[in-house]
Structure formats: structure tokens, C-alpha cells
Amino acid sequence: MTDDVFGTTRIRERVLAGWTAAPVRFREDANAEEELALGGYVDRLVIELAQNAADAAARAGVPGRVLFEFRNNTLVVANTGAPLDAEGVESLATLRASAKRDKLPPSAADESGEGGGAGSVGRFGVGFSAVLAVTDEPVVLSRTGGVRFSKADTAAAIAGLAADLDTEVRRRDGQVPVLRLPFEADGEPPADYDTAVILPLRDEAAAGLVRRLLAEADDALLLALPGLHRIEIETDEAHRVLQNAESRWYVHRTTGTFNTTEREQLLADRPTEERSRPNWSVTWALPRSAAAVVPAVAYAPTPTDEPVALGALLLATFPLDSTRRHVAKGPLTDRLVREAAAAFAELVGERADAGDDVLRLVPTGLAAGTLDRMLREEILSRLPATPMVRSVEDGTLLPPRDAVVVEGADDAFNEKLAPIVPGLIRARREDRLALDTLQVRRLELAEVVDQLGGEESPGWWRELYASLSTMVTDALIRESLGTLPVPLADGRLVRGARGLLLPGPEIPVDILAAFGEYGVRVVHPEAVDPALERLGAIPATPRSLLEDSAVRTAVEHSADADDPDAIVHAVLSLVAADPAQAEGLWWLNDLVLRDADGELVPANALVVEGSDAQAILDPDEVAPIAGDVLDRYGLPALEAVGVLATLGMVAASDVALDQLPEAVQDLDAIEDWAYDVAPEGSRYGATVGELEAVRDLDWITDGNWPKALQIMGSEPDLRRALVTQVRVVGPDDRPLGVPSYAAWWIREHVLLDDGEPLAGRADPDAEPVLATFLDPAPVWTAALDPEVRTAVGLVRDVGDLDADGISLVLDRLVDPEREVDAASILRLWTRLGTLKLFPGDAPEQVRVLDADGVTRVIDADQAVVVDGPMWVQREDLGGFVIGSGAAADGLSDLLDVPMAQEIAEGKIDGEATAADVPPIVRELVPEVPATWWEHEELTVDGVEVSWWVDAEGGAHAATFDGLAKALAWSAGRWDRRHVIRAVLNEPDRSTELLVDAVYD
After folding, report:
1. Model pLDDT for residues 351-376, shown as the tens digit of each residue
2. Mean pLDDT value across residues 725-750
3. How far apart are CA 401 and CA 831, in angstroms?
4. Are the CB atoms for 490 and 517 separated by under 8 Å?
5. CB atoms inside a 10 Å sphere around CB 25
6. Which secondary structure element, helix H or strand E, spans residue 709, and what is its range?
7. Helix 163-171 to helix 23-35 angle, to the nearest 10 degrees?
8. How confident is the model at residue 936 (pLDDT cuts 50, 70, 90)?
9. Which backbone phi and psi does 184 adopt, to 5 degrees?
10. For the residues 707-732, what does the mean pLDDT come to?
11. Cα-based angle 423, 428, 430 (whole degrees, multiple of 5)
């Protein structure tokens, strides 16, 4: 037994006396302890014992050390510092009364980090109750003595004291307050420690809780309890030491003491013990490592359940509610929120000054809770005035309210803008939300660009353009740079790079200078940078220079220029370097050159001496080019600008027939061609994808067409422009193949010596029957290839006829002086019936075929188109025009002659007898019907015939020959009529015919 150095007996007697006198006090103590053990302190064991250790070290003025040793289902917590004394035991045994009040000397208080005599961290004197979450038998051993608490001993001490107490214990199922009755205890703390708390754990659940809480202990515990310098944790599984936390965190502390007036205003609603401590402190801790995890709750100064999501750990002397889990509302909390916001802004400023990226600390997004929202509002009211963003110009820190961001600018461009945009800072894409939250002023890139200008040198502009090398890859940024100033070689400063020419090594300086006089805008050589090309400037290749509008203007007005030869030299020097560069630039034809007489003539009216072009074109329209011009620049360059050695061409793409492009407007009768080839004669909405045309056809003299067509047929480009049909797409998007311009022009305008067109004449290889109705083509056309002959309008078959040609054939077909045999007329009818093109007016007369095989001419209203063989028996209907299927329909439309069935009903008269079709016939022709109708005399519409097929497909006949035809037509096998007739007339040939059928 030890001496009762802490007076535990006296304490027990006093407590038991009180409970005996008033059992309700027993119930109040039991409820209060249970509330703490099961509520606010259920998982605060490690924190509260560490806090007590920090308080003891602070009171003793020594570095705090604490050991958590968990072995054999027992937790031992040993610490350095002031040992346990009687007042401390009294405090442990008294709920809501602390022995820590005013026991911390100023020097120790300063060391603890609480400053201003703030005393210990704990302020309620109830933290020790956290041990009840894991044990019913806590023991505290110190160098000055020991004390223990016991649920069992407390229950034993109560038993039998008073009936009312026994009743209360029974009502509580034996649960009694553990920490109200202290008992003396034997033992010593571990060596090098002044006090030890020994906790035999209640069960495995308690052991699991201890393991979790020890595993969760981290730097936040040291930061919350600055009086602790070292925390050591030993378990069967691991050994950990926590110390030097500030080497892993940036820590900013601020403290203060409320004056009398502030105490009256801020602490009036706080408990008496709190009102006696007018000191406050705020600590922010920011991890030095990006991988560190920041606790997501506020510490007051130990953990609460108040979420805070600001990227830094907040520890402050916030007032707490009775659960010690939440910050209490009120003026004190409001004041500490303002102090915390001010301290946070100071921390941000410190880290910004040290070179850290602090924009990640700017509160953005939604608040995590009420306290977090209050902090954010206060912090965001201070950060705009806190120097925290760096000036691009000199690197000094600027408050966000004085900073400017240029939208879309990158680092390189910012460096160039810094001297002319005060307060300019860099802005990464990921910083946008933070900068907007700080209300940093934004300037649109286009607005800044509009402000650029002045007397800067071309070299300065080149550096500016170089700084844009990354930005110009973005289409939206390029749009914003649309008015960027650019210095020109002639000294002007213009806005916008689009369309400017970038000088390069391909074009001599003197050529550029020559074009400069005509308004060509060339960038100053010392300002050239690749970024300008991304902004729309064009490298000054021969092609880009020739395409420049100023060059075109100079060419088109070259005849009126002061020195036209200078323009000629500049243009032809470019073209001569690569004649292909002039392709499609049709207006180069307007360049005036010297002819053999020294006169200025447009290039498209000049020919090469001795060329094919000179041989076939009208000398009144063209002149030979000067020999020295040809020698100086070469034939390819001259042909590229329109001088002719052979026939020339023009081309255009995406041509709208109702708005012909300038490139083709000088072609003779081009508007007429557009009308003729447009769908249904309307040019509106009709387009041509690619149009190639032979020019100057109207300059070819009449006697030179044989040679001209030979040239067009032999040169690939000219041949393609002549023979290839043009694809016209109408408003309904349906394509239509039409004659090329050259083919159309020749058909419309080329006349032979007899004054009649070349087109429409019989091709040398025309079908003989067709050739008899057409004029022959000249002998020289036989030397042209067939495609050329077809293109110029010579007719090889009926399909080559145009509307006028069809009219001509129909007119000559009814010439009574012409003899046309049956074979010829039948072949011609078959061809004519397939035409899709009709003349404007139907013929008044037609040639028909009589039953005796003779053709004759009759009025069209006396003729009928016969599309089936049975109608040929109906001579009563008129003269016959013979056709089959679609050809018959075509002839009816072409000649405006009715079909036979349109004017006759075809009704069979009288009675008939059904008869079976002989099996041999069905064997030979399976398609024939099984039954036919036999007539003694067969009449249709009152006209006698030998056979007929009715509307239902029934075969009617009055003769064997008629039966054969009726069965064949009914079966759709007209080609088998002769076989059927043979077997009907000569049944004994059945075997022969069956054998022959095997080989059909």
C-alpha cells in the first residue's frame, strides 16, 4: 500500500456522500460521463492523451515527448513534463473542471505556440474521459505517485450505501461513472518519462479502435500541439517516430489578446472558464510536398468535424459546442474567421515571395461547409490586395487588383507585351478560374493588338512575330490577331497580315521593287517571320506574286502604263522561271507585248511566226510576236501568257451557267452555248464542275477548218476540250452530258463551200440506210478520227442525229421520188423508235409498209403503228409503221401516229370450240397454253383474220398456220412459231424436232 498522496480517499468520500444525499447527482454524473465517452470523445483517445502530454511539457517548460506503446492488449502512454499532482487528480475526477487554467507560465506559453499566456491546449478538463472508449480500468502513474479508476471498484463502493442508489444502478444495468472515484495506485512511469497512462483494453473492438487511431496519427498532431517535439508509436507490427513536422510543412502562426471591450463583445456568450482566457491563435500549415495529404477538417486546435477544403491545414482557437465536434456560432467565431483569412492571405504572400505557385490556393468552386464558406468569403476579400502574382516585366509581386491578363497570350508573347501593358502577368489555362475569382482584369487579345503600332523597327516586329509562333496554331487566336500591324518594304505600316507577300530567295529584289510601284504589298525583309504565313501572309513565289490583285491591275492596264516594257519584263521574268505558275491566270492574256512591227498588242492576239496558229487564224485578228521578245523569254513563257503557237484554251472550275466567270466571257457566243446546254433551257441553278474550251474559233478562216480539226484531234489537250462531253448539273442535282463548247460552236458556225453546215452530214462510216437520207461529209473528214467526227456533228448512226437532223431524215424519208425497200425501212424504224430527242413538229406525211412489202408515202392521219404481228392482219386500220416494244412507242411519239390498239378494240366475234394443244407442241414450247380456240371463220371487229390472241392470252385460230402464230405469240415465244407450224403440219417430224430442240 502507498500513502494516499493525492487525497483520493477524501475525494471518494465527498463524491459518495453527495450521491448518497442526492442520487440524482449520481444519475447526472453517469449521464455526463456516458455522453462524453460515447459521443464527442469516442475516437479522440490518441489526440486527448497527446494533448495532455503537450500541456504537461508546457507547464514544465521542457520539450514534450510522448510514447504510445501498444502490446499485450494494453496501451501505455508515457510523456515528459509536469508530473501528476493532487490538483490534477481532482481535475481528473471532476467532470467539466480543468486543472490547466492559468498554470502555464509566459515563457512556457510562448514555447507552446499558444502565446500571450494562453495556457494549455485543453480548455474543458474533460479530455481524459476519452479513455473510457477503450477501457474500464485506466491507471495514471507519475513520479509523484499513482492513481487509478475502476468500474468494478466504483460499483462495489456504491453497493449498499443507499437504497435509492442501488435502484439507480439497477436501472442503468450496472453502468456507473468510472472517473468520479479515484483510487491510489502503485507503480512508476517508464524511464526517461514523467507520467504514464496505462489502459488495459476492454475487448477486441477496443483494440481495433486503438490500432486505427495510432495508424492515423500524423504530422497534424504535432502541428496542433506545438508543445510536443516528438511522438513515438510502438506496436507489435511497427515502430514510428513523428518529429520535425515543420520541416515538411510551411507554417504561419498569428496570435493575439482581446482587449476589455473585445472580451465583452466576443466572449459574452462563452462559458466562464473561456471568458477568463482572452487569448487567441491561428495557425495555417501548408505541405511542402505535393504528395502530402492535408486534413480536410479544421482543428480547434485538435480535430473537429468542420470540413475545410482550402489546401492548407487550419488550427485555430475556435469556440466549440458541447460535443467538441463543431465550431460554435457567434461573434467570437466570426472574429477568428477574419483573423484566419488575414493569416491565410499572409501565408499566400509569403509563399508567392518564395516563388511558389500560389494560385492553386485560391478558393474556387463550392464550399465544403458553413465554416469553409465563411473562410472563403473572408479570404477572397483579402487576396485581391495581397501581392501574390508576378509581373512579367520585372518579376515583382503584384496584388491581383493591379494585375492584367491578355487573353490567349503565351509566355513568349507576354515577354514582348510586358513593357507596353502595365501590370501584365502570365496566365496558364489551368489558372483561369483562380484569376477570375481574384477579379484579375482581362484584356482581349484583339484589343491589345489594336493598341500596337508606333515607331518600332522592323527587327522589333520580327521578334514580336517570333513570339507568336505557338499562338498562331490556334484558329481563334489567329482571328484575334487579324489587325496585327506589319511593316512593308516601302516603309508603310499596315494592319493585318492576310494577303501580304513575304519576300524570299526565289524572286529577285529588282522584280519585287518593280511590282511595288503598282501597289504590291511586300513585307519588309527584316520583319519576315514564319508566324506571318500562319496569319495569312503569302510567301512571294512567282505564283503568289502573279495572283496578287495589284499585279493583275498592272497587267490589265499595261497598255496605258508609262513604261509597259517594264511591266512585261517583270511579269515574263516570273513566268519564265516556271511557266506552270501562270496556269489558270487567264488575265495574263491582257499583257501587251511588242509585235514584229514594234506595236503593243495583247498577248492573246499574238502568234509565233511560222506556227500552226499563224497558218489557220485570220491575219486581220492576230499579229506575229517580236522575235527578240521570243528569244529573251522563250516560247513556254509566252504561251503561258496567251501567245499562240497552236490553238489556245481557257478553263474554269465550278461554273454557274447563269453567271459565267470572267475567264470564259471572251469566248465567242459562250452565252448562247450556256442557254443551249442548260437543262430545259434555263441557266439558273445549273452548274458545270470543270469547263475547258478552245478559244479563238471565230478567228479560224473558212478554208483552214480541215487543218484546224486535224490540229484539235492530234493535240491531247485540244482533243479533250473538243470530244469530251461537259457534265451539267441542274437545280435538281441531276447530271446531264452535253456537247463541249468547241463541239457546239463548230456545229453551229462552221459552213462548207455549199453554204450548208458541216454538222448533220453523213459520217464516212455511217450506216448505209441512214447515209441515203443525209448529205455526205467532205472527203477530208475521213482523215479525222471517229470521235472528232462525232464531236463536230457528223452522223454515224441514228443516235448521232440532233433535232434538225431527225427532221431532215423524216422529210427525206417521205420524198416520193426516193425508193425505200422493206428491209431498209424496217431497220430505220427500229433505230428511229429508240430516239429520246424529237423535232419540234411531227411530220405531215409518213412512209408506210404495205402487206405486199412495198413502201409508200401517205398522210400521217392515215397511218397506224403496229406493235404486234396479229395487227398486221388489220389492213383496214391504215398504212403500217412497224415496230416492237419500246421502239413502237417511240415511233408513235416521233411521228404522232396512233398505235393500232388505240383505234381498234380487237374484239373477237362469234363462237369458238376449245381444243387441247398437242402434247408435242407443249414439249417443244412449254410456255404455250394447254387449250386453244378453234374457229371455222375468225373475225375481229368484223374483219376476217387467221389468228388472234385475246386480252386474257387465249389463242384463237382458223388455220394451222394461224394456230402456230397464235400459240407462239400467246406464249411469248414468237421465235418458235416456225417450229410449232412444222410439228402441226407434219406430225411425223416430231422426233426430229425434239432432237433439234436439245441443241437450242
Report:
1. 999 999 999 999 999 999 999 999 99
2. 93
3. 91
4. no
5. 14
6. helix 705-714
7. 30
8. very high
9. -65, 150
10. 94
11. 130
Angle between helices 151-158 and 8-21 (to 10 degrees): 50
Distances in Å between the alpha carbon of 575 and those of 294, 336, 623, 720?
Answer: 72, 82, 22, 25
User: With the C-alpha atoms ordered 422, 428, 433, 434, is the resulting torsion angle positive or negative?
Assistant: negative
Question: What DSSP string describes 610-642?
Answer: TSHHHHHB-TTT-EEBPHHHHHHH-HHHHHHTT
Q: How far is CA 921 from CA 788, 950, 972, 980, in A?
A: 54, 20, 14, 6
Task: Report the DSSP beta bridge partners of residue 64.
Answer: 228
How many of the other CB atoms lie within 10 Å of CB of 331? 15
* Alpha-carbon torsion (727, 730, 734, 738), positive or negative: negative
Q: What angle do CA 393, 396, 400 make, to 5 degrees?
A: 95
Q: Tell me the pLDDT tens digit for each residue of 6-38.
A: 999 999 999 999 999 888 898 888 888 887 776
Q: How far apart are CA 243 and CA 219, in angstroms?
A: 8
Bridge-based pairing state of the strands 389-390 and 592-594? unpaired
Quote the CA–CA distance of 92 and 460 in Å, as a whole number.
79
In the DSSP assignment, the letter for residue 757 is B
Spell 950-975 as b/e; 16+ CB within 10 A means b: eeeebbbbbeebbbbbbbbbbbebee
- What would the grid cell of residue 760 be? 448533220
The mean pLDDT value of the chain amounts to: 89
For residues 371 and 337, the answer to whether their CB atoms sit within 8 Å is yes
pLDDT of residue 509: 67
**How do residues 861-918 score in pLDDT, each as one tens digit?**
999 999 999 999 999 999 999 999 899 999 999 999 999 999 999 999 989 999 999 9
Phi, psi of 460 (to 5 degrees): -65, -40
Beta strand 606-607 with 623-624 is parallel
Three-class secondary structure of residue 748 per DSSP:
helix
pLDDT of residue 581: 87
Bridge partner residues of 955 (DSSP): 949
Those residues whose C-beta lies under 8 Å from the C-beta of residue 456, and which sit 6 or more positions away, are: none
Q: How many CB atoms are closer than 10 A to CB 618?
A: 13
The helix or strand, by DSSP H or E, that contains position 540, with its residue range, turns out to be none
The three grid cell numbers given for residue 204, joined into one nine-digit string: 477486441
Exposure string for 260-272, b = 16+ CB within 10 A, e = fewer: eebbeebbeebee
CB atoms under 10 Å from CB of 999, counted, come to 5
pLDDT of residue 40: 61
**Whole-Å CA distances, 217 to 43, 45, 214, 240, 368:** 12, 11, 5, 10, 23
Pairwise CA distance, residues 830 & 865, whole Å: 12
Q: Could you tell me the CA-to-CA distances from 311 to 216, 317, 342, 490, 719 in Å, in that order?
A: 19, 19, 16, 58, 79
The C-alpha atoms of residue 717 and residue 715 are separated, in whole angstroms, by: 6
**pLDDT > 60? residue 124:** no
**Per-residue cell: 596:** 514584229
CB-based contacts of 163: which residues, under 8 Å, 6+ apart?
Answer: none
Quote the CA–CA distance of 312 and 211 in Å, as a whole number. Answer: 27
Residue 684: count of CB within 10 angstroms of its CB = 11
Contact 228, 66 (CB under 8 A): yes
∠ CA 529-531-536, nearest 5°, is 110
Host H or E run for residue 284:
strand 279-287
Total-model pTM: 0.57
> Within 13 Å, how many C-alpha atoms sit on residue 646's CB side?
16
Residue 579 · residue 640 · CB < 8 Å: yes
Q: Which set of grid coordinates corresponds to residue 128?
A: 481524459
